[in-house]
Amino acid sequence: MSNLCLVLCICVTVVVSNGELQRFIEPAKSDGSVSFITIGDWGRRGDYNQSIVAYQMGRIGEKIGLDFVVSTGDNFYDNGLFSEYDPNFKESFSNIYTASSLQKQWYSVLGNHDYRGDAEAQLSSVLREIDSRWVCLRSFIVDAELVEIFFVDTTPFVKDYYTEVDHTYDWRAVPSRNTYVKSLLRDLKGSLKRSKATWKIVVGHHAIRSIGHHGDTKELNQELLPIMKENGVDLYMNGHDHCLEHISDEDSPIQFLTSGAGSKAWRGDINPVTNNPKSVRFYYDGQGFMSARFTHSDAEIVFYDVFGEVLHKWVTSKQTLHSSV
Ligand SMILES: *[C@@H]1O[C@H](CO)[C@@H](O)[C@H](O)[C@H]1NC(C)=O
């Protein structure tokens, strides 16, 4: 039965991929709100405070009535998974995020480290049989009624990865960079245009704006950001830089939110030159995570450290956000 379902699902995906990304439905709560936690750059078998961050996520998840988890990629270090039977999946995921509030769907994108292993393994249904929380696709949509989250596979955008000598990347699904990116952006644009959600969020592994170690990703600035601006996106969430940060765009309502501090953090590694300091509202180079809560009118973003202490809280309404620019 489940095999049949799987076959059907795969067929449907192929058919609808003509201009439309695969969609997962997460119904809003009866009070009309949606709450989730965003975490990035985490899978290190509990090391570098990963287990402590996981514990605090469980506690906060309980408190906010967590609906699901968003993972911004670099799910398994150092080189992703080597196959769908890699014990690292259980050791860094199932055995770490054990709190009852975290027994919800986890929606993940791939990071560059995931591409250094068998990227296909993380997309495999075998992992869902091992732990049914796991949903990892290249690009897809989570439709939570008032909030629509558009997950984008950002690793293939970065041109340097194709010429790197120190690492090899699993490009089996990316025979041509430009063709892949063009078709992804076309599908994203179509999906954004058709979206009727109050809040539109884009999630990718790489930062568009960051003052952390890696800084801005120029390909995303050039190719992804204009589509987001044209189509009324409110927030962009990413990992890659091992820190927590909140940066406002200068000429659009878009807020750039980095949550890449799920385990090993970059301490003291700041790159302030790439941004106007005025637009940086918050930066923390230790470990932690972020929560997000939405209603039809309001959004609340909160960043926490390994003690579960609130580091930065940002509350806005749709109206305020769009009239401030
Ligand atoms: C764990 O977190 C504490 C508190 O932020 C920090 O002092 C410590 O260095 C962290 N340990 C590691 C291994 O990152």
UniProtKB/TrEMBL annotation:
<feature type="binding site">
    <location>
        <position position="77"/>
    </location>
    <ligand>
        <name>Fe cation 1</name>
    </ligand>
</feature>
<keyword id="KW-0964">Secreted</keyword>
<feature type="domain" description="Calcineurin-like phosphoesterase">
    <location>
        <begin position="36"/>
        <end position="243"/>
    </location>
</feature>
<feature type="binding site">
    <location>
        <position position="41"/>
    </location>
    <ligand>
        <name>Fe cation 1</name>
    </ligand>
</feature>
<comment type="subunit">
    <text>Homodimer.</text>
</comment>
<keyword id="KW-0479">Metal-binding</keyword>
<dbReference type="InterPro" id="IPR051558">
    <property type="entry name" value="Metallophosphoesterase_PAP"/>
</dbReference>
<keyword id="KW-0732">Signal</keyword>
<dbReference type="InterPro" id="IPR024927">
    <property type="entry name" value="Acid_PPase"/>
</dbReference>
<dbReference type="InterPro" id="IPR029052">
    <property type="entry name" value="Metallo-depent_PP-like"/>
</dbReference>
<feature type="signal peptide">
    <location>
        <begin position="1"/>
        <end position="19"/>
    </location>
</feature>
<feature type="binding site">
    <location>
        <position position="74"/>
    </location>
    <ligand>
        <name>Fe cation 1</name>
    </ligand>
</feature>
<dbReference type="GO" id="GO:0042542">
    <property type="term" value="P:response to hydrogen peroxide"/>
</dbReference>
<feature type="binding site">
    <location>
        <position position="205"/>
    </location>
    <ligand>
        <name>Fe cation 2</name>
    </ligand>
</feature>
<keyword id="KW-0862">Zinc</keyword>
<dbReference type="GO" id="GO:0005576">
    <property type="term" value="C:extracellular region"/>
</dbReference>
<feature type="binding site">
    <location>
        <position position="112"/>
    </location>
    <ligand>
        <name>Fe cation 2</name>
    </ligand>
</feature>
<keyword id="KW-0325">Glycoprotein</keyword>
<dbReference type="GO" id="GO:0030643">
    <property type="term" value="P:intracellular phosphate ion homeostasis"/>
</dbReference>
<keyword id="KW-0408">Iron</keyword>
<dbReference type="Pfam" id="PF00149">
    <property type="entry name" value="Metallophos"/>
</dbReference>
<feature type="binding site">
    <location>
        <position position="74"/>
    </location>
    <ligand>
        <name>Fe cation 2</name>
    </ligand>
</feature>
<feature type="binding site">
    <location>
        <position position="240"/>
    </location>
    <ligand>
        <name>Fe cation 2</name>
    </ligand>
</feature>
<dbReference type="GO" id="GO:0003993">
    <property type="term" value="F:acid phosphatase activity"/>
</dbReference>
<dbReference type="GO" id="GO:0046872">
    <property type="term" value="F:metal ion binding"/>
</dbReference>
<protein>
    <recommendedName>
        <fullName>Purple acid phosphatase</fullName>
        <ecNumber>3.1.3.2</ecNumber>
    </recommendedName>
</protein>
<comment type="similarity">
    <text>Belongs to the metallophosphoesterase superfamily. Purple acid phosphatase family.</text>
</comment>
<feature type="binding site">
    <location>
        <position position="242"/>
    </location>
    <ligand>
        <name>Fe cation 1</name>
    </ligand>
</feature>
<dbReference type="InterPro" id="IPR004843">
    <property type="entry name" value="Calcineurin-like_PHP"/>
</dbReference>
<keyword id="KW-0378">Hydrolase</keyword>
